[in-house]
Design a protein that fits this description.
The structure holds 2 protein chains of 2 kinds. Chain A has one domain. Chain A is built from 13 helices and no strands. By secondary structure, chain B is of the alpha/beta class. Helices cover 44% and strands 16% of the residues of chain B. Chain B is built from 14 helices and 10 strands. In chain B, the strands form 3 sheets. Chain B has a 4-stranded parallel β-sheet with strand order 2-1-3-4, sandwiched between helices. Chain B is globular and about 60 Å long. The N and C termini of chain B lie far apart (54 Å). Classes of the chains: A mainly alpha, B alpha/beta. At the A-B interface, α2, α4 and α7 of A face α1, α8, α9, α11 and α14 of B.
């Protein structure tokens, strides 16, 4: 194994941290604009928020399920890192799995347990209700997400992420599967409790799954949320946006630039939309998104058949 | 400078504030919110996420109990600020950074208290017995024999909205939930996350001082948008409130509200004070910015309206009532 591949895992972590910082800063910039505050470099830095959580004491409740609470708190960050393991950077990839797409999906299903445990472990009514809200939301987004992941796999006749990239050439999947791409981004926001999908951690539940956690526990959970959005954005690139395909610059640069672009779109969406109440979103998920994504898979299959030699 | 000092100084640059609105002190809440927005400080949704407890006015005896519970639940480093006059809000907040990063004081505070979160009110012994409509043959064994973790009681059972007999958990919601009006507490019986009974309690009831109806309407819009999770919209509404109803931020806000289809879809069909639903309520508030009459909140109707809703939605409905003058049978 060449040295460059050995360095890939630490590099991925550094890049992940970098993207989290960028998305945090972009979000703060949009907030400053809405509030009419002047933009300053210090105002965009995540450091004050990180510092206060590092310094803060760990809180407890009357009868917490401490072990499961910690598992739920650390889980999202772990899941995000494991998702990134199958995202190719140029020609290199940390884990070259023949079933990379299923791996990504499996990690996202793990979140069902992690977020619910984060709510359960605190042994508090609002946190637990937040956990259940996540499950309700997950019931609405999970099937559309699976079908959205199916479309590029069908087009490439493979579940290997690198083969999906190779199958696109310079006709990116987003051209023939815009629905799958859009639904995928929605679902990334949904599994990351991001923006309009933050109902499980929303203010109306006093923070929901976040209601009781403080200090390092809270830091892990919040970092995990940001990392999940980054992982989702990074995974959208090989699946729908041609991976490292692009003029002039090397492959890995294009992968990073496209990830940044998708990430910024998600940040803007986060601020512009109100929270979707899970019971309303369930209707959209089942009545609209499931049929639409199935239609997308059908169209993709027909294209594959028509182009078969 | 050591590592802890560095962390403390960085942390004090952007504290998270748990705002305690006090009945009858609306101008102080407005002033505090404006300062927080201008400085880019975050609002905490729960005591666990807060560094600063900011009372907008001296809390009355009943509210003070709840403030004490919230204070105990804050992890620390923590600072409590009580502003007793409008002119005090800003100077008091100016001292927060120094007090938060004063490590000797914070260390002493940490040493002299029990573990954060284990407050008197979280003591199961104080919790009211959760057993309406008890069926002795089925529930008694549970209630008597089983020691649950932390000494909690097993919940009793109540009829839920679908005619099932589910567990009934007695719980007090508020008064320190985000967007809730000062001193409003909802004593509820929960089946799962659905309210099967609700009583509105107004702590330390005080009339709010007069304010231009258009500004009250903008305040109500800000509160509603915050509760609906549209943070940017709420920020803009508070900016409009600060600059006056005829300023450009207000026009900008009203334009955005007219286009906010997703918000309207999300609010449709939810009960509102004196309107058909929250969408109609929002339109009435927008009308009130332009000089039409303000809707009035009715506590006895609120108590009926929230039954059958889930906790989150009920919280949204309460926040929609929040910023308005209330009548009705609040205890």
């Amino acid at each position: 194994m060449p040295v460059s591949e050995l360095l890939l895992a630490p590099l991925a972590l550094v890049l992940l941290a970098g993207f989290v910082v960028v998305s945090f800063g972009a979000d703060r910039a949009l907030a400053a604009r809405a509030a009419g505050r002047p933009l300053t470099a210090a105002g965009l830095s995540p450091w004050p928020d990180v510092a206060r959580l590092l310094l803060q004491r760990r809180r407890t409740t009357t009868a917490p399920d401490a072990l499961l609470w910690r598992v739920g708190g650390a889980g999202p960050l772990v899941a995000a890192v494991l998702m990134l393991a199958v995202v190719p950077l140029g020609d290199a990839v940390i884990a070259d799995l023949p079933v990379g797409i299923v791996w990504f999906n499996a990690m996202d299903v793990l979140l069902w347990a992690f977020i619910w445990l984060a709510g359960w472990g605190a042994a508090s009514a609002t946190a637990l209700i937040g956990g259940y809200r996540y499950l309700a939301q997950a019931l609405a987004y999970e099937l559309p997400l699976m079908f959205a992941l199916t479309a590029p796999a069908v087009a490439a006749a493979s579940l290997d992420v690198r083969e999906v990239v190779a199958a696109q050439g310079d006709r990116w999947h987003v051209v023939e599967m815009p629905i799958a791409f859009t639904v995928f981004l929605l679902c990334v926001a949904a599994f990351s409790l991001w923006g309009p999908f933050r109902a499980p951690a929303a203010d109306d539940l006093a923070g929901g799954v976040l209601a009781e956690s403080s200090g390092a526990d809270r830091l892990l959970l919040l970092a995990g949320r940001h990392a999940l959005v980054v992982a989702g954005a990074a995974f959208a690139v090989p699946l729908f946006l041609g991976g490292g395909d692009g003029p002039l610059l090397p492959d890995w640069t294009w992968q990073l630039l496209k990830t940044l672009g998708v990430l910024l779109v998600l940040v803007v969406v986060r601020r512009r939309l109100p929270v979707l109440r899970p019971e309303r979103f369930a209707e959209v998920g089942w009545v609209l998104l499931v049929p639409l994504t199935l239609l997308q898979v059908l169209v993709t299959s027909l294209i594959v058949l028509a182009e078969a030699p | 400078m050591g590592l802890t000092e560095r962390l403390a100084h960085a942390a004090a640059r952007r504290p998270h504030v748990l705002l305690v609105p006090v009945p009858g002190q609306r101008p102080m809440r407005w002033a505090a919110e404006d300062v927080l927005d201008a400085w880019g400080w975050a609002r905490a949704a729960s005591p666990a996420g807060a560094d600063v407890l900011l009372c907008c006015g001296e809390p009355g005896p009943e509210l003070a109990d709840h403030v004490e519970v919230a204070w105990d639940a804050m992890p620390g480093p923590r600072v409590r600020v009580v502003a007793t006059a409008l002119a005090e809000v800003r100077p008091a907040l100016l001292t927060v950074a120094a007090r938060l990063s004063d490590l000797p004081v914070q260390r002493r505070d940490a040493r002299d208290r029990s573990a954060p979160g284990l407050s008197a009110a979280a003591d199961p012994a104080d919790e009211p017995e959760a057993s309406h409509d008890m069926d002795p043959s089925m529930d008694m064994g549970m209630d008597m024999g089983m020691g649950l973790p932390g000494g909690w009681q097993m919940a009793g059972r109540v009829q839920d909205r679908d005619g099932l007999r589910l567990e009934g958990l007695n719980l007090s919601l508020g008064p320190l939930l985000p967007g809730w009006p000062g001193g409003l507490r909802l004593d509820v019986v929960l089946s799962g996350d659905v309210l099967t009974r609700a009583d509105v309690v107004r702590l330390d009831r005080q009339p709010e001082p007069g304010a231009p109806p258009s500004l009250v309407a903008l305040d109500a819009i800000a509160t509603l948008l915050d509760a609906a999770g549209w943070t940017d919209g709420a920020l803009r509404a508070r900016r409009a409130r600060a600059t006056g109803a005829s300023g450009p931020p207000t026009q900008d806000l009203l334009r955005r509200l007219r286009r906010a289809r997703l918000l309207r879809w999300s609010l449709r069909g939810l009960p509102a004070p004196g309107s058909e639903d929250l969408v109609a309520h929002l339109d009435r508030l927008v009308g009130a910015v332009d000089g039409a009459g303000l809707p009035v909140a009715d506590d006895s109707r609120l108590a009926r309206d929230v039954v059958g809703l889930d906790v989150g939605t009920a919280s949204l409905v309460v926040a929609a009532h929040g910023a308005l003058e209330a009548v009705g049978a609040g205890v």
